[in-house]
Amino acid sequence: MATQHLPLEEPLASEVTAGLIDLAALSREAGYVAFETLDTLATTMLKRVLALCLARRGAVLLSEDLDSLDSDSMPSRANAKTFRALALHNVHEEEAYALLTTLPSLDGQAPSPDMTCWVTYRLMPGEVAREESLQAMLVLGWVSDQGDDCSASIVRCRTILPLLSDAVGAVIGSILLAERVHKLEETAVREALEGMEVLKAELLGTVSHELRSPLASIKGYAATLLRHERRLAREERHQFLLAISEASDRLEVIIERLLEISQLETSQVTIEPSPVDVAYLAGEAITAIEERVTATSPGRYIFSLMMENIDGSVTHTVPLIMADARRLREVFDNLLENAIKYSPEGGLIKIIIRPVMQVQSNEHIPRKMLEICVTDSGMGIPDEHLKRIFDRFHRVDTRLTREVNGLGLGLAICKRIVDLHDGVIWAENKSHGRGSAFYMRLPMSAIPII
Ligand code: ADP
Prior knowledge:
Beta-Lactamase; Helix Hairpins; four-stranded antiparallel beta sheet; 9 helices; binds adenosine-5'-diphosphate
């Protein structure tokens, strides 16, 4: 169907100009109105068109299923249902579909003057906001027995619609865009909710299991103490109280970890950078854990701290970096704690610190980073778990790891902290010998002069 542009006579020209301005305003409005009011907007648009064409009834119908439509012909009876009604005025949906298939188009024969006259007008796909995959139809009607001059109105409509169609197309396009954004938002919200459901399930599964064992100890020892207080020797009572205290500590750690990961994941944590001597921090962490494990398993673990220059030569100092010392110490504590937990037979636990140049895929200039590597001689990590161990609650499930208590949150916390420092963390299995190696790299940005 060729679009006809007939000359406009005054005052029709000013009416059409006003109509176009109105439609442009509606098109802009679609960008920010609430989703629920988009159909009101579509109805307003239709009413504007009806008023300009002096028509009483009308519908805007859309189809995105072009496979069943022949682009040059009118919709057939078979494919009328592929349309959906975007706006209706004094026409039922069914009636509008029926009209679509039976009535002549704007260029068709003139309707008889003594009945309700209808015309259908196809907005060219390009006019509907350049939506190639969309067909939009306007169905307009006049009621002659109420005194309408159908023929005159149809002539007017034939003159005006080709001029208006771009503007109508723009409104429809904006409405469709707003609908699509709304759908995307809904999907995002649904996915976030699904994510929360998964988190809830993981939480309940892991946490209830982890909470149960220290709670059971506390309950058991406390009940025995209460029941047999008089019969228990002083030494036995002391042992029971010690066990209760240890189980309470474990509960405290679990609760603190849960709180911490939730704070890190909801962006409630910010880092407070200051110049940090990472080697000193690592030394402190080693001393703390060494004291603790030597008390329970003397001689089982050997700790070592090494520093290297960028060329691999040994050094005794490393440059200061800007970091949050408290948070970084937490990362060291977690990695060293794991090195012990997952090396039940003991062995060497080593920290190596060295500057490296890191080439990032999205940057041309290499970045100077401080690399910290924590290695152990323990059970190692199956290759397929190397990435996933940084996901919250992810634990490697083997006979060996099952014997080790854990929530699967330590590494997730480490990763969030390293991310906050704009650094990277990853795990590898040692290339020589047994055990795993955890690497983190932190930017060596300039230290501000105070
Ligand atoms: P948790 O130790 O509480 O389970 P983490 O997040 O610290 O939680 O560690 C996640 C998992 O990664 C552990 O369950 C374990 O399977 C594996 N893992 C972590 N550190 C080591 C290590 N040094 N050696 C072997 N496996 C490790």
